Fold:
Amino acid sequence: MIYPIVKFGNPVLEKTSEPVTVFDDELKKLIEDMFESMYAAHGVGLAAPQIGIGKRIAVIDVTFKEDPKAKLVLVNPEIIRTEGKHTQSEGCLSIPDFRENVTRPNKVTVRAQDANGKFFEKTGEELLARAFLHETDHLNGKLYISHVSALKRDLMKRKIRKLIKAGEW
Ligand code: NI
Structure:
């Protein structure tokens, strides 16, 4: 099932999501639906609040279907190590048609559970590192625009408010 993507302005995006405690078929179905929704929206990462579900689940595929092994499920993820710095243009499915340069650590290790509840650690660099941070931020009610300057952020918010007013958001 493809869920519509929740956009900036919806309070679910700015709330801390709840930990997952039950690893059942329902969770597996939700994860499947999250991948489907992410691909349908042409994204490489999606967090559950972005489909209106306040649970600590994120899916990532930085290869966008090219490498099936690159599909990653992060349940209850925690960033445990970061290293270096990397600046790159970043976007978010919940803030369509906007991008800004964001500086984040270049090498990131995440600790998370998989769809069966099994704990694992994974280290990523550049785009994957960025995805770990961006999606974990989502689960803490934080959007990438919180990492840009207040000036740029206010400008974006003003543009978005105009779009909302015009019924184009
Ligand atoms: Ni996002």
Notes: The chain has a mean pLDDT of 97. The chain has one domain: 11-165. The CA atoms of residues 109 and 123 lie 4 Å apart.
